[in-house]
Amino acid sequence: MAYNLPPLPYDYGALEPHIDTETMQIHHDKHHATYVKNLNAAVEKFPELKDVGIVDLNKSIGTSKIPSDVATAVRNNGGGHLNHSFFWQVMGKSSDNNGPSSDLKAAIDSAFGSLDELKTKFNAAAAGRFGSGWAWVVVKSDGNLAVTSTPNQDNPLFSGAEVAGVPILGLDVWEHAYYLKYRNLRPEYISAFWKVVNWETVNNYYSAGKKGSFSIEPSRS
Amino acid sequence: MALRSLNRLSFALPGCRTFSTVKLPDLPYDYGALEPSISGQIMELHHSKHHQTYVNGLNAAMEKYQEADSKSDLAALIALESAIKFNGGGHVNHSLFWKNLIPAKDFKPPSGEIASLIDKDFGSLDGLIGKFTPAAAGIQGSGWAWLGFNKATGKLSIATTANQDPLSTQGLVPLLGVDMWEHAFYLQYKNVKPDYLKAIWKVINWQNVGDNLAAAK
């Protein structure tokens, strides 16, 4: 198997009451597992894609490195595998929460004015993404932070992304991410998300992202 | 539809409303009437929340559109396009969908013109279902699967659209639509789309599909 479903860094119930146990179970064990299965099936005949690693695979999406007959499957499932692997990491029990590091706070203030204003922008991007997709905070190549959203399983690492950058925070706004508990009330889900952001991890993503580097499991420095 | 009623004279007659606000249509059956294929809980949320939101969104967007039109504010008109597409498409699609469905006890298989055309273009109803279901299951993200009619060729066609894009964007007349947004099935079927797609065939109103075909011809 080229790509593997990573275990959740916490129990299914760890994010209650903000994200419910049943959603975490189905989201990880079914939805994410299906992306991994479908990705492996898509890259089966392409050794160069099998072993390149999920991050580099995603950076190749949108380029000719991905053969055209599997381009759509790799985009949807390679994107889905990276996005969900990253998503599990940026969340954690609400007690793991000292907020942004002084470095990250400075970058937030510089780009948005304040953490509250970042949240306002991010929440609008998440609520305004029509259909399925994700909202992101990224570090761009110029070192500045930006908020963006992408459709379906696209992400800002893709070649040709509208707002390109290294993700430091992301939120799944596909209906499967919130429907069981929040029904049609996506804005309530988005508000609740902030209660489970694992700032320690986000800080680490930022430290790496500032240097243009990204790996799913950010090293704890 | 609604956009056709936008009257270019409105900028010469400030305050003159030319867009009639749309209303949420009533369902032709109770919320629980499509059980066990589609739960009453889903039908109630789907109709009274999701579709209602598209109705509200469309009315709000069209009010702004009229205002921008009356000021000849082209930038504002252009900025409203996606809201009109999302919400207008959502309203059109769901209005069609509710009529495409019927309680299982009233189910009748296709007959008349629509049955002949299905047999001609797909071999049989099973042949149609055999092609429609994988197309619907294969939609990535949110969207709709359709049985459409091509007026130019007189043929039936299976198509999919993303998000709330109406089938008219592909030059086909929608006869039957199946909502593949997760809100259409998730509470009952979770991630198991094939089960939803199997169940929905029991509650398709083929009389209505036939009526849509007759209207298209």
Automatic annotation (TrEMBL), chain A:
<dbReference type="InterPro" id="IPR001189">
    <property type="entry name" value="Mn/Fe_SOD"/>
</dbReference>
<dbReference type="InterPro" id="IPR036324">
    <property type="entry name" value="Mn/Fe_SOD_N_sf"/>
</dbReference>
<feature type="binding site">
    <location>
        <position position="172"/>
    </location>
    <ligand>
        <name>Mn(2+)</name>
    </ligand>
</feature>
<feature type="domain" description="Manganese/iron superoxide dismutase N-terminal">
    <location>
        <begin position="3"/>
        <end position="91"/>
    </location>
</feature>
<dbReference type="Pfam" id="PF02777">
    <property type="entry name" value="Sod_Fe_C"/>
</dbReference>
<dbReference type="GO" id="GO:0046872">
    <property type="term" value="F:metal ion binding"/>
</dbReference>
<protein>
    <recommendedName>
        <fullName>Superoxide dismutase</fullName>
        <ecNumber>1.15.1.1</ecNumber>
    </recommendedName>
</protein>
<dbReference type="InterPro" id="IPR019832">
    <property type="entry name" value="Mn/Fe_SOD_C"/>
</dbReference>
<dbReference type="GO" id="GO:0005737">
    <property type="term" value="C:cytoplasm"/>
</dbReference>
<feature type="binding site">
    <location>
        <position position="84"/>
    </location>
    <ligand>
        <name>Mn(2+)</name>
    </ligand>
</feature>
<dbReference type="Pfam" id="PF00081">
    <property type="entry name" value="Sod_Fe_N"/>
</dbReference>
<feature type="binding site">
    <location>
        <position position="176"/>
    </location>
    <ligand>
        <name>Mn(2+)</name>
    </ligand>
</feature>
<comment type="function">
    <text>Destroys radicals which are normally produced within the cells and which are toxic to biological systems.</text>
</comment>
<dbReference type="GO" id="GO:0004784">
    <property type="term" value="F:superoxide dismutase activity"/>
</dbReference>
<dbReference type="InterPro" id="IPR019833">
    <property type="entry name" value="Mn/Fe_SOD_BS"/>
</dbReference>
<keyword id="KW-0560">Oxidoreductase</keyword>
<feature type="domain" description="Manganese/iron superoxide dismutase C-terminal">
    <location>
        <begin position="100"/>
        <end position="204"/>
    </location>
</feature>
<comment type="similarity">
    <text>Belongs to the iron/manganese superoxide dismutase family.</text>
</comment>
<dbReference type="InterPro" id="IPR019831">
    <property type="entry name" value="Mn/Fe_SOD_N"/>
</dbReference>
<feature type="binding site">
    <location>
        <position position="27"/>
    </location>
    <ligand>
        <name>Mn(2+)</name>
    </ligand>
</feature>
<dbReference type="InterPro" id="IPR036314">
    <property type="entry name" value="SOD_C_sf"/>
</dbReference>
<keyword id="KW-0479">Metal-binding</keyword>
UniProtKB/TrEMBL annotation, chain B:
<dbReference type="InterPro" id="IPR019832">
    <property type="entry name" value="Mn/Fe_SOD_C"/>
</dbReference>
<dbReference type="GO" id="GO:0005759">
    <property type="term" value="C:mitochondrial matrix"/>
</dbReference>
<feature type="domain" description="Manganese/iron superoxide dismutase C-terminal">
    <location>
        <begin position="110"/>
        <end position="210"/>
    </location>
</feature>
<dbReference type="InterPro" id="IPR050265">
    <property type="entry name" value="Fe/Mn_Superoxide_Dismutase"/>
</dbReference>
<feature type="binding site">
    <location>
        <position position="179"/>
    </location>
    <ligand>
        <name>Mn(2+)</name>
    </ligand>
</feature>
<dbReference type="Pfam" id="PF02777">
    <property type="entry name" value="Sod_Fe_C"/>
</dbReference>
<keyword id="KW-0560">Oxidoreductase</keyword>
<keyword id="KW-0464">Manganese</keyword>
<comment type="function">
    <text>Destroys radicals which are normally produced within the cells and which are toxic to biological systems.</text>
</comment>
<dbReference type="Pfam" id="PF00081">
    <property type="entry name" value="Sod_Fe_N"/>
</dbReference>
<dbReference type="InterPro" id="IPR019831">
    <property type="entry name" value="Mn/Fe_SOD_N"/>
</dbReference>
<protein>
    <recommendedName>
        <fullName>Superoxide dismutase</fullName>
        <ecNumber>1.15.1.1</ecNumber>
    </recommendedName>
</protein>
<feature type="domain" description="Manganese/iron superoxide dismutase N-terminal">
    <location>
        <begin position="23"/>
        <end position="101"/>
    </location>
</feature>
<dbReference type="InterPro" id="IPR019833">
    <property type="entry name" value="Mn/Fe_SOD_BS"/>
</dbReference>
<dbReference type="GO" id="GO:0004784">
    <property type="term" value="F:superoxide dismutase activity"/>
</dbReference>
<feature type="binding site">
    <location>
        <position position="94"/>
    </location>
    <ligand>
        <name>Mn(2+)</name>
    </ligand>
</feature>
<comment type="function">
    <text>Destroys superoxide anion radicals which are normally produced within the cells and which are toxic to biological systems.</text>
</comment>
<dbReference type="InterPro" id="IPR036324">
    <property type="entry name" value="Mn/Fe_SOD_N_sf"/>
</dbReference>
<comment type="similarity">
    <text>Belongs to the iron/manganese superoxide dismutase family.</text>
</comment>
<keyword id="KW-0479">Metal-binding</keyword>
<feature type="binding site">
    <location>
        <position position="183"/>
    </location>
    <ligand>
        <name>Mn(2+)</name>
    </ligand>
</feature>
<dbReference type="GO" id="GO:0030145">
    <property type="term" value="F:manganese ion binding"/>
</dbReference>
